[in-house]
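Troubleshooting entry. Yesterday's outputs looked truncated, so today I'm pasting the complete records for two proteins to confirm everything comes through intact. If either block looks cut off, that's the bug. Protein one:
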Amino acid sequence: MKEHIYFLGIGGIGMSALARYHLHIGNKVSGYDRYRSSLCKSLEDEGMHIHYEDRSADLPQDLDRVVYTPAIPANLGEFQILEKSSTPMSKRAKELGHISNKGISMAVAGTHGKTSISCILAHLMAQSSFDCQAFLGGISKNFKSNVHFSSSKHYVLEADEYDRSFLQLEPNFLLISSIDADHLDIYGSSEEIQKGFSVLTQRLRPGGHLLLNEKIDPQLLTESKHFSYGLEDADFSAENIALTDGEFVFDLKHPEGKIEHLKLSYPGRHNLENAVGACAMALLAGVSGNEIREALGSFKGIERRFDLQLATDSCVYIDDYAHHPTEIETSLRSIRELYPNRKMEVLFQPHLYSRTRDFATEFGKALSEADAVFITDIYPAREAPLEGISSQLILEKVSASQKKLVDKDEFLEYLKSAQPELLVSMGAGDVSEWVEPITNCLQELD
C-alpha cells in the first residue's frame, strides 16, 4: 500500500536521497525545510511539495509517516506538533537501515572521505554485473543525483557518524576511512568517537568483510579479522603511480594478485587513496578486475568535491566541501601539488559554532596553506549562536599575510579587481550558492 511520507529537513543531502527513493517506489512525498536551496528546487521539479515556513497550517493532514533529521531543532513548531500526534516518526538513519538491511549492505564510514569513496564504489558496482542501489552524501556526476535505483540487492550507503546514526545499519561490507575528532558536540571526546566506530564494527553481519584505512590502528576498533587499504604497505594498495595531465595511472595490488593500468581522472592523492578503498570493496564483493578497470576510467567525479569550476591560462577555480581542518589541509596540499606556481586564494565558510569553537586553532593552521584567506560568517546549520564564537577566532589563527572577513557582495567586488590565479572555495554550508556567481564573475574577467 502506498504511503504519504513527510520529511522534516527534506533539503539535507541524506534526507533528499530517502525522499527520492520513496517517490521512486510510488509513495507520495512532501516536506519542510527552512531554506529553498538548489537541491530543494530539484525535489520540487521532481514532484515533491515543500514549504519553507514553520507553520502548523502547512502540515498535510493525510500523513502516514514522518522521517526527520537529527539536525531539526527540538523547538521547531512542526516537530513538536508531530511528536504529540499519533503519526509514526523515525529518524533518517533508522529509515535508511530499514531499507538497506533487507539486502546486501555496503557501508562506507569515516570522518573524512566517505562521500568520495561511496560515490566511486556506487559507480563501480553500477557498471558491474551486480549493479546496486545507492544512497549517497553528495551528487555523483555519473548519476547526476545522490541516489541510484535498480533491482539489485546490493546497497551502497554512506554511513554517517553524526548522532551515531550509523549504528542503525547492519552491513555485510564495511569500510572505515578515518576516525579523527569531529562532532564533539555529540561525542564529547576523541575516545568516544573511537568507541562509536568500534560499536559499528560489531554490527557487521556474520561472514562480513571489514576494510580499514592503513592509517587507522585496528586495535582502537576491533579484534576481528580485517583488510587494510591505502597508498603504502596495505592489503589493497596503489603501485607504480603516475600522474599525467591530471589523470592518475596505477596498479592495484590486492591479496590475490594485481590489477594493472587503472586510470582515475579525479585529482588529489587523497582521492587516489579513496579510489583504492572503493576498488577494494568492489573486489571483496566479487566484481572482476576488468569491470573495475573499465568503470574507474569512466568515473566523472562528485559535485563540490575537488570540483573544477573553471580552468583557463589565467585562472583556476576549484570548489570543495571540506569543512574540517584535516580535510582542508589535505585538499589544499593536493591543489598546491597540482598548481605549484600559482598564488592560491581561499574562501572558507566555517560550519557550526561548536566546530569553530573546538577547532579554531586547527582551522587557522590548515588555511595557512594558502597565500590569501577570506572567511565568511559561520554557517549555523542546526545550531544557535554561542557567545563569543565567531569567524574572527579562526582568522586570528591564520598566518597568511593577506586575510580578511568578507560577505558575499564584498568578495565578488574584490574578485573584479584581484583577478586571482588560483581560487578555492570551501565549506559545507550555503557557500555552495556562491559558486555560480563566483564562476560568472571570473569568466567575465578572463
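Protein two, checking that the full record survives here as well:
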Amino acid sequence: MADLLYLIPLLPLVAFVINILWGRSTIRGNAHWIAIPAAVGSWVLSIITFREIYTDHHAISQRLFTWIPAGDFNIVVSLYADQLTAVMLLVVTSIGMLVCIYSVGYMHGEDGYYRFYSYIPLFIFSMLMLVLADNLLTLFIFWEAVGLCSYLLIGYYFRRRSAGNAAKKAFIVNRVGDLAFGIGIMLTYWTFDSIYFHGEDGILEKAYHFADYGISEGTIMAIGILLFIGACGKSAQFPLHIWLPDAMEGPTPVSALIHAATMVTAGIYMSARSYTIFIGSENAMLFVAVIGSITAFMAASIALTQHDIKKVVAYSTVSQLGYMAFALGTGAWVAAIFHLMTHAFFKGLLFLGSGSVIHGMHGEQDMRKMGGLRKHMPITFWTFLIGSAANAGIFPLAGFWSKDEIIVGAWVSDSHYGKVAAIIGLCAAFLTALYMFRLVFLVFFGEERFDSHVHPHESGPWMAVPLVILAVASIFVGFVGFPPEDGAFHEFLHHAFEHVHGHEVSMTMTYTFGIVSTVVALSGVAVAYITYMRKAINTDELAERFSGIYNFLYNKWYVDEFFMAAVVNPMKDIANFLWKVVDVRIIDGTVNGVGTSIVAISARLRRVQTGSVANYALEIGVGMVVLLGVFLVAFGNLF
C-alpha cells in the first residue's frame, strides 16, 4: 500500500482539474459524476490503508519529490500515515464522500453547479494532504489551501453581499491565527533544526527530550502557544471563533464537510500531531485547556438564544471543538481524537439534516417559522433526532462515549485546572442537551408556524441515504472506544505516540461519570421539554426579566463588538489618517507641490518672452552689466 498512498489525495485532485477545466463548457450538470467516483475511490483506499496500519502496527511513508534543495535546508515532500493519520483519512473521505452524494439533491439547479463540484474535491485533496504531511511546512501549505477552499465555498453565493462579507471575515480572522502558526513553525525550526515530525532527529522526539538538547521549557511553551493560536483560528476557538457562525452563508453541504467535520478539526489534528511539544510545558497545556473550556461553555450558552437552525448547529460545533481542545490540554489525547471522530459523524448528520429541513421549507432557516415538520419529513426527523441525542451525549449514542471520556480524563488529570475543566464540561453538556432539544421541539413538534403557501416535503434519495448512513454511524461508532482506555481503539491510537500515556481511570470512576453525564444530559432534555413542549415557562417573559443576560448571550458575548471597537474601527481610523493626511496631504501634496511650483515659476519667467527685439536688447544689456559687476567684485583686486 505504501506505493499507492499518493492515490488517496490524487483522485480528488484529478476530479478538481477535470471539473474546473471542462465543467462550464462540457460537463455542466454532470460534474458530480466526476467528483463522486473520486471521493469513493479515496474512501476505499483509506479503508485499505487503515486496515494495513491496524494489522501491522506500523506507519506507512512514501517520498514524492524534493521541494526545496537549499544546502542544509532540504525539504522533501513525503506522505506519512500512522494510526492518527489513518483515523483522519477515514473521517475526511467518509464525510467527503457522503457530502458529494447528498449535494446532488441539495445543489440541483444551482448556478455554478460545476464550481461546487470543483471546489469540494479540491478541499478533500487539500485536507488529505494536510493530514498526510510529514513536516510542518508541507502541513502549513495545505493548511492555507483548505483555508482558500473555505473562502471559495463560503462565498459560493457571491452575488449576496452577506456571503461575500462572511467569506472575507473567515479569511481575515484565520490570517491572525496563521500568522502565529507561521512564527511558531520558524521558532520550531530555529529550536530543533528540523520541521519533520518523525525520526530520531524529528521535532516530536526532540521535544519529548528537550532538556537533553539544552532547550528551555520557556521555548517549548512559546512554540506550543504559537502553534495553538494557529489552531484557534482554524478550529474556531475563543476569541478567533467569530468567523465560523458567519460561514453558514455558504451552502449547507459545505457547512457539513468543512465547518463541522473536517477543516475545523485541522487545528485539533495539528495540536494532536505536535502533542509532545505541548506536554513539555505545563503552561502551554494550561493555555490549551483554559481556551478550550471557555470556548465549550461560551458557544453552548450562545446557541440557546439563536433562531437560525444553522447558527444553532454552528455554535454547537464551536462548543464541541472546545471539548476537544480542553481534552488535549488536560492530557486526554486519545479522548480528543475519539471525540473528533464521533463528532464528525453526528455533526455532519446535523448539518445535512438542517439542510434537508431548509430544502423542504424552500429556504427558510428561522426556527420560529417552522414546527410540526416530523409529519412532513419523517426520515429527516428520525435521523436528526439521533444526531441531536448523540450531540447531547445521551447513552448509548456516539457522543456519550467520547464526551464522557473527555470529562473523566479532565477530572483525573494531573493538571490543577482539570477538575475545573470537567465541571465546565458538565455545565456545557447540560446546555448542549437543552439547546439541541430546543431545536428539535421547535422544528419538528408543536403547531405549524409556517405560511400556508409553504408545503414542506421530505428530501429525495440523494439526500436521504447519506442521512440514514450518518445516523447509523452516530449510533454505533462510539462503541469502538469501549471499554475506555483499554479498548482496541485506544490501544491502536497509543501506537502513534508511544511516549504519551493516558490517564489511569478505574471502571468505578468511568461508570460514575457515565451516570452523572447521562443525568446531566437528560436534565437538559427535560428542561427543553418543559419549556418548549409543555410551555410551562414563558421564554419571552424570561428573556425580558433577565434582559441583561439574554442580550449578552443573543449578542454572542459581544465578542464581535469588542473586535469592532478594539481592532477594526481603530484600524479604519489609522487607515483614514494615512490616506487623508499622509498620502493625500504629505505625499501627494509634496509631489503636486513640486509640479505646482514649477508651473508658477514658469508662468513668471514666461512674461519675459515678449517677442520684442528692443526688450531682448535691454535684457542682454542689463545681464552684461550684472555679469560685469559680479566680475569686478570678485576679481577687482587683480587690476
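Both blocks look complete. Sanity check on protein two: The first strand starts at residue 60 and ends at 70.
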